[in-house]
Structures are given as C-alpha cells and as structure tokens.
Amino acid sequence: MKKKWIFIILLVLLVLVQFIRIDKTHPDIDKNKDFISLTNPPQEIAKMIKTSCYDCHSYESKYPWYAEVAPVSWYLKNHINEARERVNFSEWADYTKEKAARKLHACAEDVDEEEMPLSSYTFVHGKASLNKEQIKQLSNWFADQAKLEK
Questions:
Q1: CA 62 to CA 56: how far, in whole Å?
Q2: What are the domain boundaries of the chain?
Q3: What is the pLDDT along the chain (150 residues), one digit of tens a residue?
Q4: C-alpha R_g of the chain
Q5: Which among 38, 125, 41 has a CA at the least distance from the CA of 88?
Q6: Which residues contact 115 (CB under 8 A, 6 or more apart)?
Q7: How far is CA 114 from CA 96, 100, 108, 119, in A?
Q8: Nearest to 39, CA basis, from 26, 27, 53
Q9: Neighbours of 30 (CB within 10 A)
C-alpha cells in the first residue's frame, strides 16, 4: 500500500512540473554579428558549423519535441545557456580580437579532441556527427581563423 502512494505522489509531481515551462524565445538574430556572415567560411565548413554547432552555440536553437517535457526541458535549456556562455556564434562581432582568437582556438581543440559536438547531442542528432576527415577539416579551419584573429 505504501508503494502505491509513493507512486501516486511521484506521478502527481511529474504532472505538476509540466507547468514549469522553459523560455524558448531567442533574441533577434543580427546577421551583421553572426560568425558565418563575418568569417565567410567555405560552404562545406559553414554547413558543418551550422549542423554541428549552431543548435547550442547560437540563437538559432531548434528545440525538439522532448523539450516540452520537464525535467528534460530544464536540462536542455541549461545546456544551451551554458553553451552560449562559452561560445555564441550569434554574437561573434561583440568579441574582441583576442577573445575571438581564444574561442576559435578552444573550438579547434574541442573538435580535434572529439569533445564537440557532444556525443549525447550526436546520439539524438545523427546529422551533427563528424567523421575523421570532417573533424580534421573543421579543427584546422578553426585553428587557422584563430591565427588570423591574433
């Protein structure tokens, strides 16, 4: 009998937390501040960045259906907020040259060491996965851009 009440209470709590919604609005996107607009990468590189990075690291996040379900929605929103704090490609023009160089260097390292895109992200978003050749291309391109910023 006690297990039944615990289950009922947990179920009620799960239903109630669904009313705590996340904010999925984005600031307006200013193409004059956008990383791809400013750096004009080759089309193949731009596609990799858009597909593998922009969903978390820009104001162009596309929330999947499960972003409607708490507490998963809270995790996703927190993850995106932290990603944008680390690098926000939608605000690229706001970075100083030194800060941009540091961020590009970090991007190169993270891609090269296969830390980005996150495996938990590519598990659900298979198109964001990068093969070995793409990892090398993207990492080298980020590293080259970091040198240009210095």
A1: 9
A2: 23-149
A3: 788 878 777 877 776 667 777 777 778 889 999 999 999 999 999 999 999 999 999 999 998 888 888 998 889 999 999 999 999 999 999 999 999 999 999 999 999 999 999 998 999 899 999 999 999 999 999 999 998 776
A4: 19
A5: 38
A6: 109
A7: 27, 21, 10, 9
A8: 53
A9: 13
What is the number of other CB atoms lying within 10 angstroms of the CB of residue 35?
A: 27
Cα–Cα dist 15/9, whole Å: 10
For the record, the structure tokens of 105 come out as 């260097």
Q: Alpha-carbon distance 112 to 107, whole Å?
A: 8
- At 6, give phi and psi (nearest 5°): -60, -45
Longest dimension (CA), the chain: 68
Which of the 8 DSSP states describes residue 141? H
Residue (of 108, 93, 98) closest to 149 by Cα position? 98
Q: Are 128 and 117 in contact (CB under 8 A)?
A: yes
The SS3 call for residue 136 is helix
Instruction: Please give the Cα distance from 46 to 4 (Å, whole number).
Output: 54
